[in-house]
Amino acid sequence: QICYLWKESRKASHLLWKVIFVHHASVFSFSLCVCPANTSLSVFVDTRAVLHCPNATSNVLVVTWSVIFRDNTSCIRAYRTDSNKTREKTCTDERISWDSRPDQNFALRINPVAITHEGYYKCEVVTPDGNFCHGHHLQVLVPPKVTLSLGENGTTVCWAVAGKPAAQISWTPMGDCHTVEERLGNDTVTVQSTCHWEDRQVSEVSCFVSHVTGNKSLSIELNQGNYLCFFFFFFFFLR
């Protein structure tokens, strides 16, 4: 256990603030309060995110951001108003910082957002009237790259590559389809759907990819090969 003691004397009264950081068995906890208010926040990868602290009803003494990332690593940033000083612990990612000067704005900025920034962000504000805190469950969204092509043996393949979370794929018209998911090392998912249509009268099919970042639809003609054969036959033999 590592304890940081901040003391101040004002008008013959002594205020003692104790911040305790407990780091044990890869579990990082911040002991000042349990946040009654938590929100879920979803942001796109490679964008800018700003996380805000709760509104305090009286003079702010100390502001502390404690972060637990999804891999159980952590970061703590603290600001003390009377001395206008900041302190941090294990905050090595330069993309995470105060949104501006902490004496003007207590918000935390992430720019640009990466998948590794996913986690729990808690802001605690210490005042003479008590502590106020708010937690943010940050989820990072990654739009998949969508492609549609003709496969082997009369099949058609639709891909939703490296999306987070996994995309959903559907077809029009419905065919004999097989869908598989591949989880990649960066927590994104590639979805591959392969379809075949026994009905020879189906000339065009559409792949519809549904994702929280936005939907996309692609279409392809199944008889492209027949058109090419007809074109070459007409060009070489009937000209």
Overview of the molecule:
The chain is mainly beta and 239 residues long. It folds into two domains: 35-140, Immunoglobulin-like; 145-237, Immunoglobulins (Immunoglobulin-like, Sandwich), CATH 2.60.40.10. It has one helix and 19 strands. The chain has one helix spanning 224-237, and strands at 2-10, 13-24, 27-30, 38-44, 49-51, 62-69, 74-80, 85-89, 96-98, 108-110, 119-127, 130-141, 145-150, 156-163, 168-172, 176-183, 189-196, 204-210, 216-221. Strand 18 (204-210) and strand 19 form a beta hairpin. The chain starts with a strand and ends with a helix. Residues 1-32 and 226-239 have low confidence and may be disordered.
Can you give me a brief rundown of this structure?
This protein is mainly beta.
Layout: helices, strands, pairs:
Layout: E1 2-10, E2 13-24, E3 27-30, E4 38-44, E5 49-51, E6 62-69, E7 74-80, E8 85-89, E9 96-98, E10 108-110, E11 119-127, E12 130-141, E13 145-150, E14 156-163, E15 168-172, E16 176-183, E17 189-196, E18 204-210, E19 216-221, H1 224-237
Parallel strand pairs: 4-12
Antiparallel strand pairs: 1-2, 2-3, 5-10, 6-7, 6-11, 7-8, 9-10, 11-12, 13-14, 14-17, 15-18, 16-17, 18-19
Structural class: mainly beta
Distance between the termini: 87 Å
| CATH superfamily membership of the largest domain | Immunoglobulins
Radius of gyration (Å):
28 Å
Proportion of strand residues: over 45%
CATH architecture of the largest domain: Sandwich
Estimate the global geometry from the Cα principal axes: rod-shaped
What's the helix count? 1
Residue-averaged pLDDT, rounded?
82
Total number of strands = 19
Please state how the strands of the largest beta sheet are arranged side by side: 4-12-11-6-7-8
> What oligomeric state is this?
single chain
Which CATH top level class of the largest domain fits? Mainly Beta
Count of discrete domains: 2
**What is the H-and-E element order?**
EEEEEEEEEEEEEEEEEEEH
Q: Which consecutive residue ranges, at least 5 long each, have pLDDT under 50?
A: 1-32, 226-239
Question: Helix coverage percent of residues?
Answer: under 10%
Q: What kind of sheet is the major sheet? A: 6 strands, mixed
Which fold name is given in CATH as the topology of the largest domain? Immunoglobulin-like
